[in-house]
């Protein structure tokens, strides 16, 4: 015979069941990744050999105006095209750094730091999602960079997240780690397999070198609720095949943890190779973790110039990859998503030299012997302004001109933008091709192309000599200290012998104070061209 429970008893049992469930849930530890040495998920990384490490808007100094406008203006299609031409097989891109601005929405972060839609420092545009869409057709994988700590230049966020200051004088508390893992996991879940890996900065174990604590100890207690194991699990939550790494500082000697899949290898010096850290036959693995190295291409992160010659870069690249190591090179990428022109040229040259398809892109300095200057020209070496070759040419005298003769299909000039400059009329074969306003360019760093022609305006080149003229409507000065580049290799969108010219909009990287005069691009044929710049 069934007996009916009283409502009180049923309610009491329900309450007890809920209470027991809550207790059980409270005892369940955070999601944990399994340590996996010799991880086959890094095979694509090793086989790809090298990628680009983009510290976009590094340090926050370039963050001016509206954040959403900056992010919206990043040209992912142009960037992806350039990356493909360098031969890079992956891109590591900064989601955000110490500024507190991030190039993607994250509701978890905004909730934790108490920000609304009007006060958020998260962009409306999901830039990584758009980067994936642009890179994927080229077979280029996307990886993301994040600090392991709160953004130190955003004190409100640091306080809200419970990260002690100065950040890198203190270990990351458990409560902070829990919050940061939840932020990382939201991005991981959203991107899923679109993000192939993560590069986490700021878990340094070399603090003793600077009189600071070893802050990596905050992550190496595997009896605690949060550590490298749970951090890696949060990053892999949306994609179990993603590869992760934690940066120890300037070191390529050993992995931080076996919960990392590859070594970040930040050294900024192209002098270490895998064989220095293991025995013959020089395995790709260091402590069961894939060897890799990270270094900037210029004189610092997100800076112009070239720290290494193309020959040195190519030789080092060959040595490392022949030992199954991986290199992540950091060129300077503008706010608009354009790789610095001379650095881009160097990467293309390196790729072509290794692939045996050369000669690629030739960069010519403004003081190259092949450039003939006539009239009154001055040179300047402003301190700290980033002139490549530590030199720049300029004129304020009407009638002065410069000439350069070369083989090639395309020339790109990067000059200097300034309020006292003028407008350059670009003539190709005697016909006006383009006008470049070096006063009111919409971009600080790019302002135009010098191109050989448009397919709907003139026939294919079939003469022995070509001439380009660049005339200056003089209302100030014109500085010829940025790069003109010409292509030496044949590629789609560029001229082929016997065919009509197709316009390829190649916005040259133009530095605030100039950089190089010439970069030349050309096919493997004997067309001779003459570039003549006349200032009137």
From TrEMBL:
Recall the GO molecular function terms of this protein's record.
Answer: alpha-L-fucosidase activity
Ranges of Basic and acidic residues compositional bias?
454-476
Instruction: Tell me the domain of life.
Output: Bacteria
Residues of the region (Disordered) are 443-493
- What span is annotated as the signal peptide, if there is one? 1-35
* Keywords for the protein's UniProt record, in alphabetical order: Signal
Q: Which InterPro entries is this protein grouped with? A: GH, Glyco_hydro_29_N
Residue ranges of every copy of the Glycoside hydrolase family 29 N-terminal domain listed in the record:
72-272
A Gene Ontology biological process noted in the UniProt record is: carbohydrate metabolic process
Protein name in UniProt: Alpha-L-fucosidase
- Naturally occurring in which organism (per UniProt): Cohnella rhizosphaerae
């Amino acid at each position: 015979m069934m007996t009916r429970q009283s409502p009180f008893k049923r309610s009491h049992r329900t309450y007890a069941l809920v209470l027991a469930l809550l207790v059980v849930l409270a005892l369940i530890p955070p999601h944990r990744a399994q340590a996996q040495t010799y991880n086959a998920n890094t095979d694509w990384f090793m086989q790809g050999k090298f990628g680009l490490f983009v510290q976009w808007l590094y340090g926050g100094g370039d963050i001016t105006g509206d954040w959403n406008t900056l992010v919206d203006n990043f040209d992912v299609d142009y960037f992806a095209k350039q990356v493909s031409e360098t031969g890079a097989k992956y891109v590591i891109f900064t989601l955000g750094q110490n500024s507190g601005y991030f190039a993607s929405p994250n509701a978890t972060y905004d909730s934790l730091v108490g920000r609304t839609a009007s006060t958020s420092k998260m962009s409306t545009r999901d830039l990584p999602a758009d980067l994936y869409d642009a890179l994927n057709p080229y077979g280029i994988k996307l990886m993301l960079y994040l600090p392991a700590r709160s953004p130190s230049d955003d004190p409100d966020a640091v306080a809200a997240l419970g990260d002690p200051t100065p950040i890198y004088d203190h270990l990351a508390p458990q409560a902070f780690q829990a919050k940061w893992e939840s932020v990382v996991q939201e991005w991981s879940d959203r991107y899923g397999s679109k993000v192939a890996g993560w590069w986490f900065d700021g878990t340094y174990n070399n603090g003793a070198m600077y009189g600071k604590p070893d802050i990596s100890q905050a992550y190496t207690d595997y009896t605690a609720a949060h550590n490298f194991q749970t951090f890696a699990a949060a990053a892999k939550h949306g994609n179990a095949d993603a590869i992760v790494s934690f940066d120890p500082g300037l070191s390529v000697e050993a992995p931080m943890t076996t919960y990392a899949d590859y070594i970040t290898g930040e050294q900024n010096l192209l002098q270490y190779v895998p064989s220095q850290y293991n025995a013959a036959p020089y395995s790709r693995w260091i402590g069961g973790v894939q060897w890799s190295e990270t270094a900037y291409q210029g004189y610092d992160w997100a800076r112009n110039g070239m720290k290494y010659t193309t020959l040195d870069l190519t030789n080092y690249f060959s040595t490392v990859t022949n030992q199954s190591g991986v290199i992540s090179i950091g060129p300077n990428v503008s706010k608009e998503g354009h790789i610095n022109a001379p650095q881009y040229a160097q990467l293309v040259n390196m790729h072509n030299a290794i692939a045996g398809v050369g000669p690629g892109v030739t960069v010519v300095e403004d003081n190259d012997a092949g450039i003939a200057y006539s009239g009154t020209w001055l040179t300047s070496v402003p301190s700290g302004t980033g002139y490549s070759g530590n030199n720049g040419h300029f004129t304020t005298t009407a009638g002065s001109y410069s000439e350069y003769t070369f083989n090639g299909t395309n020339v790109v000039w990067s000059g200097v933008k300034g309020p006292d400059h003028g407008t350059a009329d670009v003539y190709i074969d005697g016909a006006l091709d383009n006008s470049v306003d070096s006063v009111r360019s919409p971009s600080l760093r790019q302002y135009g192309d010098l191109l050989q022609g448009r397919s709907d305006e003139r026939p294919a080149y079939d003469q022995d000599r070509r001439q380009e003229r660049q005339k200056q409507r003089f209302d100030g000065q014109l500085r010829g200290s940025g790069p003109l580049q010409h292509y030496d290799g044949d590629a789609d969108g560029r001229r082929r012998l016997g065919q009509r010219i197709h316009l390829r909009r190649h916005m040259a990287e133009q530095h605030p104070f100039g950089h190089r005069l010439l970069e030349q691009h050309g096919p493997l044929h004997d067309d001779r061209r003459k570039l003549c710049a006349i200032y009137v």
